[in-house]
């Protein structure tokens, strides 16, 4: 409590990841390009600074005064933050918050999360010709989808500020609230499972007693806490900050495949040479977790890569910027980069268009297809060039794209209009089988049509 701030607003938030999350230590090891942040037990955690940074950005977007909540530090003056945020602690398979332990824990979820790489995705940057850039191969170590965390927020104030407090809490339910890196590729998204709040006036004797009864750890329940309605929080968040969401139901015409998998999904006696990408996820039912070792996923990064290249094409066509083969030409060397973001040796900027991960847990078929490589001179097969691949067939898959309207700030009307038109044309291509996702597009794989 600071000076005259005698009113405590506290909230306990439980979240569940809907996509892998990467909060890196900033250091690599001999095996991986990044390590994830862990607590003293070796389990993943969410630093309070990561939560505060993401929350601060959205609070600023909602036109609220940051100084009164987050404080400030300048060369002239400084003010301590009235908002306190704990670290996010992980849940075990029985949905209990885990803190320090002194002995081995036999828990399927915690054992998975204690691994060096619970989820590892391989990535590669693509150049203007649609092929891999030299030296641009990397991997990402992440916390799997379905992992649950709990953290607390406390805000001290001198007056009752329930409306502002509920707005701050509601922002956790906003679709633009992501944690960690890679958020424009769908990483770090989550659902808010439960929010409990209380407000105590420490000038009142009965509430002083309640304050003393507040638990000092996240493992104990908050007494006399009010459980907030998640749908109401979502509606409040969208009123504070607008977002433009596009959700499509797409059906693959001739199957699709994102490579890099390690397990066959077809049930064949002999696994195919090229397998679809799957990853570990955690599934919850009645607050009990089950591990899903091979969940099929269409990564947001796969959609983002194809989408950004096609949108670049449409934008250049609309504004008549043609390709000239010289050293100054570079991919996204147009206003497109202000929407998708960029990072180079001299500057960087975050993107404003978010591509969500899509997961398929059932109602699909994996079929193996055998292929040969043909000699272009003789028309015959090349010796030892026989291989097989697995493709995924299903009735539909949901693909979600969210645009942050803030991208249009400091842009002229014509540029905004051209970018919107290029986006709509690219969206049309994706829905009408003109834009392929994943591998094998040259042999008809990865083309989708919208399901009405």
Give the biggest sheet. Answer: 6 strands, antiparallel
Rg on CA atoms, Å: 25 Å
Counting helices, strands and paired strands, the structural category is alpha+beta
**Number of beta strands:** 22
Strand content: 25-35%
InterPro entries: CRISPR_Csm3_endoribonuclease, RAMP_III_fam
Domain CRISPR type III-associated protein: 14-190, 258-448
Keywords: Antiviral defense
Protein name: RAMP superfamily CRISPR-associated protein
Q: What is the secondary structure topology, with strand pairs?
A:
Blueprint: E1 7-17, H1 48-61, H2 67-70, E2 72-73, E3 78-79, E4 83-85, E5 89-90, H3 108-113, E6 119-126, E7 132-142, E8 148-157, H4 162-170, E9 190-201, H5 205-213, E10 226-227, H6 230-240, E11 244-252, E12 278-285, E13 288-298, H7 300-319, H8 337-340, E14 342-343, E15 348-349, E16 353-355, E17 358-360, E18 364-371, E19 387-394, E20 397-403, H9 413-431, E21 432-436, E22 447-450
Antiparallel strand pairs: 1-8, 1-9, 2-3, 4-8, 5-8, 6-7, 9-10, 11-20, 11-22, 12-13, 13-17, 14-15, 16-20, 18-19, 21-22
């Amino acid at each position: 409590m600071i000076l005259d701030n005698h009113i405590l607003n506290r909230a306990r938030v439980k979240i569940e990841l809907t996509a892998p999350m990467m909060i890196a230590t900033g250091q690599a090891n001999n095996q991986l390009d990044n390590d994830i942040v862990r607590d003293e037990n070796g389990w993943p955690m969410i630093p309070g600074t990561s939560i505060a940074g993401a929350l601060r950005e959205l609070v600023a977007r909602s036109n609220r005064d940051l100084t009164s909540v987050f404080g400030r530090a300048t060369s002239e003056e400084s003010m301590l933050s009235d908002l306190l945020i704990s670290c996010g602690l992980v849940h075990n398979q029985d949905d209990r918050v885990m803190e320090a332990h002194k002995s081995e824990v036999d828990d399927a979820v915690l054992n998975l999360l204690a691994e060096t790489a619970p989820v590892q995705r391989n990535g590669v940057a693509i150049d203007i010709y649609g092929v891999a850039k030299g030296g641009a191969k990397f991997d990402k170590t992440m916390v799997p989808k379905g992992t649950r965390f709990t953290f607390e927020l406390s805000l001290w104030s001198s007056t009752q500020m329930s409306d502002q407090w509920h707005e701050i809490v509601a922002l956790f339910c906003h679709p633009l609230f992501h944690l960690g890196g890679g958020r424009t590729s769908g990483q770090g998204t989550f659902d808010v499972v439960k929010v409990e709040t209380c407000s105590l006036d420490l000038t009142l004797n009965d509430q002083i007693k309640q304050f003393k009864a507040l638990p000092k750890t996240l493992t104990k329940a908050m007494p006399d806490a009010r459980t907030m309605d998640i749908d109401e929080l979502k509606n409040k968040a969208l009123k504070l900050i607008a977002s433009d969401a596009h959700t499509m139901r797409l059906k693959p015409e001739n199957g699709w495949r994102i490579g890099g998998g390690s397990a066959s999904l077809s049930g064949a006696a002999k696994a195919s040479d090229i397998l679809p990408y799957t990853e570990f996820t955690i599934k919850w039912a009645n607050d009990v977790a089950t591990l899903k070792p091979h969940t099929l996923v269409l990564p947001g990064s796969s959609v983002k890569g194809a989408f950004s290249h096609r949108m670049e094409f449409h934008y250049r066509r609309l504004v008549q910027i043609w390709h000239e083969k010289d050293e100054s030409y570079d991919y996204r060397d147009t206003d497109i980069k202000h929407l998708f973001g960029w990072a180079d040796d001299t500057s960087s900027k975050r993107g404003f268009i978010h591509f969500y991960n899509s997961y398929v847990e059932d109602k699909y078929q994996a079929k193996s297809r055998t292929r040969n490589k043909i000699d272009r001179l003789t028309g015959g097969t090349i010796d030892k060039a026989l291989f097989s691949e697995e493709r995924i067939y299903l009735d539909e898959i949901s693909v979600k794209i969210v645009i942050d309207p803030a991208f249009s700030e400091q842009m002229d009307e014509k540029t905004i209009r051209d970018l919107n038109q290029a986006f709509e044309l690219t969206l049309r291509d994706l829905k009408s089988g003109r834009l392929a996702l994943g591998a094998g597009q040259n042999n008809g794989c990865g083309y989708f049509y919208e399901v009405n």
